[in-house]
Design brief:
mainly alpha, 256 residues
């Protein structure tokens, strides 16, 4: 009951501070821009062709389809993850600085309970924003071109969603350990850097969670879902480890 009450408090805080509305607007914009940019690409090429022709350069015609729209989605999702991380990082640090949990502690709230509620709020926010963006892109792409020639649409989207969850757990761990926005972001950046280093070696590349960002190649069958099993497993294991470490650290702290 206490956890649910604190989770409700977190939700109201996200709305009151404007973080949730802003994130929803940003992800909605991303969802609209993906097919819009694809739709406008031929017009942009025609416009450039006129100016380039005067300089002796000829641009060939370009055609766009549903895959072009989805390629925009997977190109932009990394930026969306960064925006989400900046907006959601450091919730524990804010409570620590404001000392707003002290009255709730007197009513039986524990630090791990507060930490779990904050992590749950971040996960719900990411899930809501991400799938909203995906749904908008899917609907507009279906309207303009249809999605019948696209393969593994949901599988590719699920892998990217899992990557976002992995980043969220790193932000959560950084918030608990360093109790600062910069600490949370540095933890996520360190995890991303470690994952990128793994991709540099043939024997470890398949185990890097960063491989999940390339899940868009599933749409044209350049890869198969089975190719991401190791990366997904690594993201799950390290994400759960980060979450568990954050809970253990929160038990040892006297304040958030």
């Amino acid at each position: 009951m206490i956890c649910l009450a604190f989770l409700k408090k977190e939700g109201m805080e996200l709305i009151r501070t404007g973080r949730l509305p802003v994130l929803l607007m940003i992800f909605t914009l991303f969802g609209i821009l993906n097919p819009a940019l694809a739709k406008l690409t031929p017009w942009l090429y025609d416009t450039l062709a006129e100016s380039m022709a005067s300089q002796g350069l000829i641009l060939t015609d370009i055609s766009v389809d549903a895959l072009t729209s989805w390629n925009q989605f997977y190109k932009n999702i990394s930026l969306a993850v960064i925006v989400f991380s900046v907006m959601i990082a450091g919730p524990l640090a804010e409570e620590y600085k404001k000392q707003t949990l002290i009255p709730l502690m007197a009513r039986g709230l524990t630090f791990p309970t507060a930490a779990c509620a904050k992590a749950a709020a971040a996960v719900i926010t990411w899930t809501l924003c991400y799938w909203l963006c995906f749904l908008i892109t899917w609907l507009y792409t279906l309207w303009f071109w249809g999605n019948k020639d696209i393969s593994h649409t949901l599988a590719a989207a699920a892998f990217i969603w899992l990557f976002g969850l992995w980043v969220t757990t790193l932000l959560f761990l950084g918030s608990v350990l360093f109790r600062s926005v910069s600490g949370a972001l540095l933890m996520a950046a360190a995890g991303a850097l470690a994952g990128w280093i793994l991709t540099l070696f043939a024997k470890t590349a398949a185990w890097s969670p960063m491989q999940l960002l390339s899940a868009g190649t599933l749409l044209n069958l350049r890869t198969l879902p089975e190719d991401y099993k190791k990366a997904a497993l690594a993201a799950l294991v390290t994400g759960l480890a980060a979450f568990g470490s954050a809970l253990l650290a929160s038990r040892k702290q006297n304040a958030l």
